[in-house]
Design brief:
Elements: E1 6-7, E2 19-22, E3 25-31, E4 38-46, E5 49-53, H1 60-71, E6 79-83, H2 89-92, H3 95-102, E7 106-108, H4 110-121, H5 124-138, H6 142-145, H7 148-151, E8 167-168, E9 174-177, E10 180-187, E11 194-199, E12 204-208, H8 230-244, E13 250-253, E14 259-260, H9 262-283, H10 290-297, H11 304-323, E15 327-332, E16 335-340
Helix pairs in contact: 8-9, 9-11, 10-11
Length: 342
């Protein structure tokens, strides 16, 4: 039976406003220009100021919403730090703008800062060849390849410059915010070193993108690491989170709504990937490219943005099958061909 989240609240805060989900913990929501059209961000009361967790994408609309918050819900109190769970642009997009505005430190895992900093400095010319090679290997047609150039080097266009200095947080570290300790639990697979933040005293987990109530987090192979095996890392993280977080915390995800039923959701995510791996094996009824398998797994029409996520997810499952000995891969020209092992 599929997991049905127990949402803790009805509705969501309007743009430029907040909703207190637990004492001293406030929920705000910012728009995204994608099919997934929002991100949840978090404001934590921190003495005479605030700690921000995640920032939103770098657009004028999101900046304007923050300006409303500064003088409204945040009551003119300063930002003491900006915590970023991972480098993706909807999470880190305004990290540079916010830290500069308040002369506040950026706090995030080393690998996430390094990746974001690198991509924010990486131009299209430097990325183009690697992107083209990667998507050709996946089986992109000539028509599909036209969209690849638009993707290469695009990160820096939707983030303010990632700060040149930061404060590192690592697995097991505690951050004291408003007199309470928030422990970092590293998640992997969705991003290299995703920070989940758990406060035992408040029984609240900021799960970021690692655990979402309704959709499965994107677990993809990307051009920067073409031989990546992210699905195994994601599945290992599910097991770690079971052990690291007890009880039934209020889960604050980056998308959809705050929910209860954390451990049931972990079981559901585990089962989803077992099922998806079986579906991927079934899709290999003949030697196939990654794109061939993509179209057998994703029946709905995909826009350009979704197609890049879908091929990344398809390759993640194919790579996991190779690791499990259920599929093999061989290169034919400049394209990879996957075959199931019978």
């Amino acid at each position: 039976m599929a997991f049905t989240p127990e949402y803790a609240f009805e509705g969501e805060p309007p743009l430029g406003e907040t909703f207190e989900v637990a004492p001293g913990i406030h929920w705000l929501r910012m728009p995204l220009p994608f099919k997934l059209d929002h991100i949840n961000l978090w404001l934590l009361e921190d003495g005479d100021g605030w700690t921000i967790v995640d920032t939103g994408i770098c657009t004028d609309e999101v900046k304007a919403a923050w300006e409303t918050l500064f003088t409204g819900a945040m009551a003119g109190r300063p930002v003491k730090r900006v915590v970023v769970t991972h480098f993706h642009p909807d999470h880190a997009g305004l990290a540079g703008w916010l830290t500069k505005r308040f002369d506040a430190p950026l706090v995030m895992p080393l690998t996430e800062w390094t990746f974001g900093r690198m991509l924010s400095l990486d131009g299209q010319d430097q990325s183009q060849e690697a992107f083209k090679k990667f998507y050709r290997r996946a089986g992109f047609s000539n028509d599909m390849m036209e969209s690849v150039s638009r993707r290469a080097g695009g990160y820096k266009n939707i983030v303010s410059p990632i700060p040149a200095a930061f404060e590192r947080i690592a697995d097991g570290d505690n951050i004291e915010i408003g007199g309470r300790k928030w422990r970092m639990i590293v998640g992997r697979g969705h991003s290299p070193e995703h920070a989940c933040l758990y406060c035992d005293e408040a029984d609240v987990l900021i799960s970021g993108d690692q655990v979402l109530p309704k959709i499965s987090p994107n677990v993809s192979v990307w051009p920067q690491e073409p031989e990546g095996r992210p699905l195994g890392l994601f599945i290992d993280t599910i097991a770690r989170l079971r052990n690291e977080v007890g009880g039934d915390p209020l889960v604050l995800p980056s998308h959809n709504w705050p929910f209860k039923g954390f451990h049931a959701r972990l079981d559901d995510l585990d089962a989803h990937h077992v099922e998806r791996l079986d579906e991927t094996v079934d899709a290999l009824f003949e030697p196939s490219t990654g794109v061939d398998v993509l179209y057998r797994l994703f029946k709905r029409e995909l826009d350009e943005h979704q197609t890049f996520f879908a091929i990344g997810e398809t390759l993640a499952h194919l790579h996991h099958l190779i690791e499990d000995g259920r599929a093999v891969r061989e290169r034919q020209g400049d394209v990879d061909i996957f075959t199931r092992v019978v």
